[in-house]
Write a structure and sequence with these properties.
With 392 residues, this protein is of the alpha/beta class. It contains 15 helices and 13 strands.
């Protein structure tokens, strides 16, 4: 008699509503159909060879073992100097800056470090898809507040109404993924006034901080003392230096918040790739790559918008990030009436260009006939995509 087959024990999912992300789905579909992938947000061009060479030098110099848990001191000091120079924030590299395994880990760690079971965390939709699952993993309750449809500007009356005695934190994101909206100085001041009488913490996702266009200035939380004193400020070297696969970021926070952050950080990643930290520290000696990044991406944005303007897509404002949103409701194809997700699959299969539906960034799948393209691509890639989209 054969023994019974091994059985995997039953379990209850910690994230029962989570499946494969839309980014994975659309990238796989793009590869299957040979489509130009303007869906997932990553460059298709290389980073500066000098940065790669700096990693090689760091490896050859023997920087291949564990670094300190908070990050290589030279990189934390370089970040402290940058925060002071750009935003006027004086922060202690030893007690207020932590190097993370990218921004996604940084956000998860911030949430796990301060959110207790039953705490409420306000998120502004549409929002990056990791926010709500992170809150749920901490046992918190996500309170969804919509940004204004069309402009995607914050609605402070709605934000104020969402804050209760149970609110532990608010997550904001500027420049905003997926819409490209940028918070103004007036927005930040209004947020500072709103939170001043509360104990609500702030998680500020600023990974696109150097991609702000048309002469605007990035309004980092770091510029506002009343916000900086209660905030985790999240940055990404991957976005800034075209190395998204390196997964290296930072969190700047007051010492008391950083102490709690590091308690979690040391047990979910402990520390981050050593030679890349040393390379980034030396590369940051020259601020030009991030100072000039806005002009680099604004040129790509303008090239892409000019091409889209010749189609029946309706362009939405694109003030920052490397994303461009368009309204599909005026297209002269019957598929315009499909749900956004189905439209993006049709666009990938039939037109050979992959996009992301904005409905994927809403908990209820809110469909407003808007899709998102990524223009962090070679000019030839963008021109090929525009050639295919011109058939619409």
């Amino acid at each position: 008699m054969n023994p019974p087959l091994p059985r995997t024990p039953a379990l209850t999912s910690r994230l029962p509503k989570v499946g494969t992300t839309i980014f994975t789905v659309m990238s796989a579909l793009a590869a299957e159909h040979g489509a130009v992938n303007l869906g997932q947000g990553f460059p298709d061009f290389d980073c500066d060879p000098a940065l790669v060479n700096a990693v090689t030098r760091a490896m050859q110099a023997g920087h291949n073992q564990y670094p300190p848990m908070p990050g290589v001191p030279a990189l934390r000091q370089a970040m402290a100097a940058k925060m002071q120079a750009l935003y006027g924030l004086a922060c202690d590299a030893n007690t207020e800056i932590t190097v993370t395994a990218g921004a996604t880990q940084a956000i998860l760690t911030a949430i796990l470090s301060v959110v207790q079971p039953g705490d409420e965390v306000v998120v502004l939709e549409p929002c990056y898809d990791s926010y709500v699952p992170n809150i749920e993993l901490a046992g918190g309750v996500a309170v969804r507040v919509p940004l204004t449809p069309g402009s995607f500007r914050p609605d402070f009356d709605r934000i104020a109404s969402a804050i209760t005695p149970r609110t532990r934190a608010l997550i904001i994101n500027s420049p905003h993924n997926p819409s490209g909206m940028v918070w103004s100085a007036a927005d930040m001041q209004q947020l500072q006034d709103l939170l001043a009488p509360t104990d609500v913490l702030l998680i500020s996702d600023e990974v696109y901080e150097h991609m702000v266009f048309d002469g605007q200035v990035h309004q980092s939380v770091a510029r506002y003392p009343g916000l900086a004193a209660r905030a985790f400020i999240v940055s990404s070297f991957g976005k800034t230096y075209h190395v998204t696969g390196w997964k290296v970021g930072t969190v700047v926070a007051p010492a008391a918040l950083t102490a709690e952050f590091r308690k979690v950080h040391q047990f979910n990643v402990f520390t981050v790739n050593t030679p890349m930290q040393h390379a980034l520290a030396s590369y940051m000696d020259n601020p030009a790559p991030y100072v000039e990044l806005a002009a680099f991406y604004q040129r790509k944005r303008d090239l892409f918008r000019e091409g889209l303007a010749a189609t029946r897509f309706r362009l939405l404002p694109g003030q920052g990030t490397y994303f461009q949103c368009v309204d599909i409701s005026s297209l002269a194809v019957p598929e315009r009436d499909l749900p956004e997700g189905d439209f993006c699959q049709w666009l990938t299969r039939e037109m050979g260009v992959a996009a992301i539906p904005l409905s994927a960034f809403y908990g209820d799948g809110f469909d407003q006939r808007v899709v998102r393209f990524c223009f962090a691509k070679k000019d030839d890639t963008l021109r090929e995509a525009l050639k295919r989209l011109s058939r619409l």
